[in-house]
Specification:
8% strand, two-stranded antiparallel sheet, 7 strands, 342 residues
Length: 342
């Protein structure tokens, strides 16, 4: 299956390649359903909007060694499921309460179509024509990677070739619902059926449901890519990024999987640049802190995309009562069946 000319990230097939299922649409819960729904419409040639990305000050993380042994020691010292509420509060206090503060260094540039941008686009198109992907790369891909590399044509071409080669080798265009059904059934990750208050598609990761080595790493990687592709297909007009929510309630040392974390970091840096505008770490327990220390050097300046929050803050700052994910509804809150995005 070739790379779609119509979108930067093409629609993947459902079970029969033609129709999507509620499994495709939501990946919600531990028992996916396969009743048919109409496929989502593809978006052709959407304009690129300016994206404001939040920035947070670094939290006080002194005295923690960045090593796997430190993570394990944290678990043995404080019990397998110790969630220090004071830590979540401390980390949340270190983050900004303004979720829309722009950070110009992390935000994607705006495509204006001025003379200089058009010249750069034509140069990039010519550069890609000499590669094996010259007939496959789309104008949307050309523009997005050019903006990501701040109009540096050679850097954009290099990153585009790397991304397209990865998609071909990984088989990103041919992952089906069947391929990810077993992993999705664990409930470890799903695409929420509603947008957040900024009209961003929302991916929820339940970290406590991911157990390292319980399944081949490739299966988790495929679910990650599949869910992200679904999220990008749901982008509304004027929105180009996704919100990622990592639910860390119940996190234990057995859930720590730095190989998978590294994969996530790599795909968002190299293959889906600037598509993730914010990451929420919800109710982080004490034993997560050494793992965060290991992640930060990989993230570099993009660590500023992370905000440590409580479940209450997720409810208050990111959703309305009607769009709140089931996982974050407080006791006594009316429960509803997942529905299509609104």
């Amino acid at each position: 299956m070739g790379i779609s000319r119509r979108r930067c990230f093409p629609l993947l097939p459902g079970l029969d390649g033609n129709t999507m299922t509620t499994f495709d649409r939501g990946l919600v819960g531990s028992s996916p359903r396969y009743d048919r729904v109409s496929p989502p419409a593809r978006v052709v040639g959407r304009g690129l909007s300016h994206i404001s990305v939040p920035s947070i000050p670094e939290s006080d993380t002194s005295g923690i060694k960045s090593s796997t042994s430190a993570w394990v020691r944290g678990s043995s010292s404080h019990g397998p499921n110790t969630a220090r509420p004071w830590l979540a509060g401390r980390l949340a206090a270190a983050s900004t309460s303004n979720t829309t503060t722009a950070n110009s260094d992390l935000a994607i540039m705006q495509w204006t179509g001025d003379e200089e941008q058009v010249k750069a686009l034509n140069r990039l198109r010519d550069a890609m024509a000499s590669t094996e992907f010259g007939d496959e790369v789309t104008d949307e891909q050309l523009r997005w990677f050019l903006l990501d590399r701040k109009m540096q044509v050679d850097a954009a071409a290099e990153k585009l070739v790397k991304m397209l080669a990865w998609r071909k080798d990984f088989g990103a265009d041919s992952i089906t619902t069947t391929d990810v059904a077993q992993e999705a059934a664990t409930g470890k990750a799903y695409l929420h059926t509603h947008y957040d208050v900024q009209k961003r598609p929302v991916i929820v990761v339940r970290a406590a449901k991911h157990v390292k080595d319980a399944a081949p790493l490739l299966h988790s990687q495929q679910l990650c890519v599949y869910t992200l592709e679904r999220a990008l297909e749901k982008l509304p007009e004027g929105q180009d990024t996704v919100l990622g929510i990592f639910d860390l309630r119940g996190f234990q040392s057995r859930n720590a999987d730095m190989g998978f974390v590294k994969f996530i970091v790599d795909i968002f840096f190299t293959y889906y640049p600037k598509r993730l505008s914010q990451v929420l770490f919800v109710d982080a327990p004490w034993i997560f802190k050494p793992g965060w220390e290991m992640m930060k050097p990989w993230l570099k300046k993009y660590a500023a995309l992370v905000r440590f929050v409580s479940a209450d803050e997720v409810r208050r700052d990111y959703f309305t009562p009607e769009t709140l994910p089931e996982d974050f509804k407080p006791p006594g809150f009316p429960r509803t069946r997942p529905s299509s995005s609104k």
